[in-house]
């Protein structure tokens, strides 16, 4: 009988947020899927626990940070390791916007952040479930494709919002009228949005940089986003490079959305939430093993309760958080 796997020595008070026992994991990367019409085949990393069946699935969408490698299937190890070692299968694509690919701007039909192709990546993954399992013998027959959630950070959170029902607009080059873009994915049952972009109606509060690389943020509509989601908000996550609206901009996916939503406010958190995008990452200006672990445990608990019938992890975790002064708070609507 193997000994229990210990937690990181620096997780601090996060240890008081209950979670399941830690198990070893297996990972396959890259798993390559040819996709008709895509500039390059879709590359994935899939990470699973060594034991268990009917594993719920997390689709993880990377952000667009300053690092050269973390914005790809190689990033987000703190979250991926935690989720997979506690009973989830985690699937990470490298989106076309990744610096590991770096296509010429003129080759990208939806701008440098590839906002629509990012969403399509996950639709393609769900369409190719059989191919994915066939490519990873250890995963074959163990994944529950009816229990799928999405986790996104930063630009990845915008991708997740679109899968959950948020809508955007695009100018029709022929009619010069704005068309509604709706890419909701009903196979995704719940989501976690970490440091998500908000909206700037009409673009008046957007920064010059946002108008250049992410004009689609301006007219994002969250009211149609009715799929359950947890919005993770850092009270020191100041988005001045994208908007003049301040930190409250990141609350929009909660404040303006329809359906059942929860908001986790993480005190003291900047945009990387203690280091969710990678261990010891240069892009992290608020590095904290404790804070990162809090985010991992609470988002894990939320998705367990959304995707596993009868699971009470979220309620238990929220109750534990109440007793941890100065960590954060949860509200719901």
Structure summarized in a few sentences:
This protein has 333 residues and is α/β, with parallel strands linked by helices.
Molecular structure report:
By secondary structure, this protein is an alpha/beta fold. Helices cover 23% and strands 22% of the residues. The chain has 8 helices and 11 strands. It has helices spanning 77-85, 115-127, 129-135, 155-164, 208-213, 252-255, 289-307, 313-322, and strands at 25-33, 42-49, 55-61, 89-93, 143-153, 167-171, 178-182, 190-194, 229-234, 261-266, 328-332. The strands form 2 sheets. A 9-stranded mixed sheet has the order 1-2-4-3-5-8-9-10-11, sandwiched between helices. Strand 3 (55-61), helix 1 (77-85) and strand 4 form a beta-alpha-beta unit. 49% of the residues are buried. The mean pLDDT is 95.
Order of helices and strands: EEEHEHHEHEEEHEHEHHE
Largest sheet: 9 strands, mixed
Order of neighbouring strands in the sheet with most strands: 1-2-4-3-5-8-9-10-11
Strand elements, count: 11
Dominant shape: globular
Distance between the termini: 45 Å
Q: Helical residue percent?
A: 10-25%
Topology record:
Layout: E1 25-33, E2 42-49, E3 55-61, H1 77-85, E4 89-93, H2 115-127, H3 129-135, E5 143-153, H4 155-164, E6 167-171, E7 178-182, E8 190-194, H5 208-213, E9 229-234, H6 252-255, E10 261-266, H7 289-307, H8 313-322, E11 328-332
Parallel strand pairs: 3-4, 3-5, 5-8, 8-9, 9-10
Antiparallel strand pairs: 1-2, 2-4, 6-7, 10-11
Features:
alpha/beta, two-stranded antiparallel ribbon, 9-stranded mixed beta sheet, 333 residues, 23% helix, 22% strand, 11 strands
């Amino acid at each position: 009988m193997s000994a229990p796997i210990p937690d990181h020595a620096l997780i601090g008070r996060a240890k008081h947020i209950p979670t399941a026992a830690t198990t070893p994991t297996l990972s396959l990367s890259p798993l390559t899927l040819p996709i008709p019409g895509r500039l390059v085949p879709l590359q994935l990393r899939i990470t699973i626990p060594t034991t268990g069946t009917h594993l719920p699935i997390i689709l993880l969408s990377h952000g667009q940070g300053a690092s050269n490698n973390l914005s790809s299937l190689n990033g987000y190890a703190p979250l991926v390791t935690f989720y997979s070692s506690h009973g989830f299968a985690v699937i990470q694509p490298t989106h076309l916007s990744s610096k590991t690919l770096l296509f010429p701007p003129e080759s990208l039909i939806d701008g440098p952040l590839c906002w629509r192709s990012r969403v399509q990546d996950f639709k393609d993954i769900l369409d190719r479930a059989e191919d994915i399992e066939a490519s990873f013998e250890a995963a074959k027959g163990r994944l529950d494709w009816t229990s799928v959630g999405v986790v996104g950070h930063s630009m990845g959170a915008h991708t997740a919002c679109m899968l959950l029902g948020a809508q955007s607009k695009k100018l029709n080059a022929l009619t010069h009228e704005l068309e509604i873009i709706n890419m909701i994915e009903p196979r995704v049952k719940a989501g976690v949005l970490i440091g998500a972009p908000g909206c700037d109606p009409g673009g008046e509060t957007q920064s010059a940089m946002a108008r250049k690389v992410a004009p689609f943020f301006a007219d994002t509509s969250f009211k149609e986003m009715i799929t359950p989601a947890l919005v993770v908000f850092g009270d020191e996550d100041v988005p001045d490079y994208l908007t003049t609206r301040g930190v409250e901009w990141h609350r929009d996916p909660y404040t303006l959305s329809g359906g059942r939503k929860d908001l986790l406010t993480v005190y003291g958190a900047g945009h990387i939430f203690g280091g969710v995008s990678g261990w010891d990452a240069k892009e992290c200006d608020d590095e904290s093993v404790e804070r990162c672990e809090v985010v991992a445990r609470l988002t894990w608990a939320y998705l367990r309760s959304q995707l596993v019938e009868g699971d009470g992890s979220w309620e238990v975790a929220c109750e534990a958080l109440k007793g941890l002064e100065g960590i954060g708070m949860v509200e719901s609507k």
